[in-house]
Design brief:
Blueprint (H helix, E strand, L loop, with lengths): L2 H9 L4 H4 L13 H7 L6 H32 L5 H10 L5 H14 L7 H4 L8 H12 L3 H9 L4 H12 L1 H17 L2 H6 L8 H10 L6 H21 L1 H9 L5
Helix pairs in contact: 3-14, 4-8, 4-11, 11-15, 13-14
Organism: Streptomyces lincolnensis
Keywords: Cell membrane, Membrane, Transmembrane, Transmembrane helix, Transport
Membrane topology: Multi-pass membrane protein
């Protein structure tokens, strides 16, 4: 599984005429110029596209943490009409492929004038559209003893105070899991960003890598692999930093 990644790292240090000659990992003379060439290949430095990705990722994480946690609390603790039906509808949305809903979504965002902005990539996250994370948090909250809620209610706390003061602090593993998965999926997202972002200055990292290949008749593969390695660094750092929270969020079921 790791061999293609290692081959990409090694290939990022090879001259173009040697990259596809061998599938081995032997490296004799590192060619560090690939990184400088790739970094400055566009009208903007590659950091510009990484900042764009960071903006989208930050908005998506904040939206999912806030909206999905509120929706999960409602499904796990509140009683309202047709609760089971709405929960089933929410789960069904997980099965819908993006290609089914992308056309009506694009028409809607086009009418709002949001095409070629980051809004279509961020605003839906604040509307609890990621059912997977809602389901994850619902299962986590159901594992928290209801006696905690009842004790807080006796002291006069309402749902808002119970959620923000009691439930939310106990949900740290689930919130961290949501943040990590949202970061990885949004940072690596290509299809949705390709649909909504048309201005090269608005491109995110995946779109910049695609443009790198398309803009030249003879592709500088060494620079492409070099920038691919650079784009993977934030993903590895986030995963390694939050790995313990990720394991706790998936393996545990709530309060102890």
């Amino acid at each position: 599984m790791l061999y293609p990644v290692l081959w990409m790292v090694v290939s990022s240090l090879r001259p173009n005429n040697q990259i596809f000659r061998s599938a081995g990992l032997a490296l004799t003379h590192p060619h560090f110029e690939n990184y400088s060439n790739g970094w400055n290949a566009f009208s903007q430095p590659f950091s510009h596209y990484m900042i764009n990705s960071a903006i989208v990722v930050t908005g998506a994480i904040l939206g999912n943490l806030l909206a999905c946690s509120l929706a999960a609390y409602a499904f796990a603790r509140l009683e309202f009409r047709a609760k089971r039906v709405w929960f089933a509808v929410m789960l069904v949305t997980i099965m819908l492929p993006i290609h089914v809903i992308i056309v009506p979504q694009y028409v809607l965002f086009s009418e709002l004038g949001w095409v070629n902005t980051f809004l279509p990539l961020i605003v839906p996250k604040f509307l609890a559209t990621d059912a997977f994370f809602i389901f994850l948090m619902v299962q986590f909250i159901r594992g928290i003893p209801r006696e905690i809620d009842e004790a807080a209610r006796i002291d006069g706390a309402g749902h808002a105070r119970i959620f923000f003061s009691l439930i939310l602090p106990l949900m740290v593993p689930a919130l961290a899991t949501t943040a990590i998965f949202t970061f990885i999926w949004t940072w690596n997202d290509f299809y949705t960003q390709l649909i909504y972002l048309t201005d090269p200055d608005m491109y995110t990292t995946p779109l910049a890598l695609r443009t790198f290949v398309d803009q030249q008749t003879a592709t500088d593969w060494g620079s492409v692999f070099a920038m691919s390695v650079v784009s993977l660094v934030p993903v590895f750092l986030i995963f390694l930093t939050g790995q313990r929270f990720l394991l706790r969020g998936i393996a545990t079921t709530g309060g102890k």
